[in-house]
Amino acid sequence: QGHQAAVNMARGPPGVSFSVMFSLVWRLVAAFVLLYLLFWAMWFFLHPDALYFMLFSKDKKWKQTPDSSAHFLAATSKSAQAKKTKRVVFVRHGESTWNYVFNGNMLPHKLIPRLVLSAIQEIKFILGNTHDSFFYDAPLSQKGIDQANSIRKFLNNPGTTKDTLSVLRGFDAKTSCVIVSSNLRRAISTALLGFWDRLHDREESLVILPCLQEITVNPDAIAIAPAKTTPPLSHIEAKLTEPDMSRAYRSKLDMSLHLGSKAVTSNGLVRILEFNQWLFAQEAEVVVVVGHSLWFKSYFNEFLPRADGNKFKKTKLPNCGVVEFVVESMNVENEIESRPVYYIQPQSVNELKGAL
């Protein structure tokens, strides 16, 4: 009995071990949260434009355009002749470093290492005085690079024989086609990697359109490159040799239309309508757009009939997913105004490549 009492005294009162452990874990969690908040306070201090954009931008807020389907369905033969038609192919970028950190598995043992490692990498960029960033104009992650290369493999697959894919490869000499990209690095790199064989063989340039910039207030969608300049290559892509991404960034990008990052006073609809104006001013019959999920989703919501239940009005196109459709344009004139309206033919929407 005396021996058992001594053992009990050594163990201490019941519950002490649990309470000590709980206190230790709580302090570690609190310390981690505090340090992580301090990291972001420092980051936004160094990137005040990103903080200003997050606080004051209305990039995702606008009044939806009227349903234009009635104009096209009721078009007279005369007005129907005035319609213009374009075939468009949307290609979403591969996974970005931002997606990797914040959109992955949210279980603590998965999330915390991503938060820590990405913060450490960002601090290295800051201390090294480089122009790269893990969060600002987030580039492709390693998984995103693999996804972008899957587009290249998809296009080179001999079993892929649809007419549109022949155009994407550049094999159809009768159909004029141009490839354009958002001014954000993850879209640019996806386009270069996925369509490299075509861009290289045809000595073709990738046209950069700032109106394709993603619709969000997050820092990952702020363009890092000033107007008319080429963005810096990410530390991940700088290691690639097939293709040589450093050379591709120097020689394959047409930055002449890049006027800088989106304005805090603008919104996504302004850029969508700007793209349509550019689109229908082109001679190309097919336009391949490498861009972003929320921008694509907004485009479908604006120009598909309101009653149409197409899944892309509610669901994001997956990373490196490919979808084609036909969009029409015509002018609506009345006593008050004359303006262009746009309409996606619902039956033309066709997913060519889905999730991996």
Question: Explain this structure to me?
Answer:
Helix 8 (142-156) packs parallel to helix 10 (185-194). The chain has helices at 2-11, 16-46, 48-56, 69-73, 77-81, 97-102, 108-127, 142-156, 163-169, 185-194, 196-201, 245-251, 268-279, 293-303, and strands spanning 84-92, 177-181, 206-208, 253-254, 286-291, 322-333, 338-344, 350-353. The protein is of the alpha/beta class and 356 residues long. The longest helix has 31 residues, at 16-46. It is globular, with a radius of gyration of 25 Å. Strands 1, 2, 3, 4, 5, 6, 7 and 8 form an eight-stranded mixed sheet that branches.
Which features would summarize this protein structure in a list?
13% strand, 356 residues, 8-stranded mixed beta sheet, alpha/beta, 8 strands, globular, 14 helices
Structure summary:
β6 and β7 form a beta hairpin. The protein is globular. The chain is built from 14 helices and eight strands.
Set out the fold topology.
Blueprint lengths: L1 H10 L4 H31 L1 H9 L12 H5 L3 H5 L2 E9 L4 H6 L5 H20 L14 H15 L6 H7 L7 E5 L3 H10 L1 H6 L4 E3 L36 H7 L1 E2 L13 H12 L6 E6 L1 H11 L18 E12 L4 E7 L5 E4 L3
Parallel strand pairs: 1-5, 2-3, 2-5, 3-4
Antiparallel strand pairs: 1-6, 6-7, 6-8
Sheet with the most strands, sense and barrel status: 8 strands, mixed
DSSP strand count: 8
The chain-level mean pLDDT equals 89
Helix content: 40-55%
Classify the secondary structure makeup into a structural class. alpha/beta
Shape type: globular
User: What portion of the residues fall into strands of 2 or more residues?
Assistant: 5-15%
**H/I helix tally:** 14
Task: Give the SSE order as H and E letters.
Answer: HHHHHEHHHHEHHEHEHEHEEE
Uncertain regions: pLDDT < 50 for 5+ in a row?
none
Radius of gyration: 25 Å
Distance between the termini: 67 Å
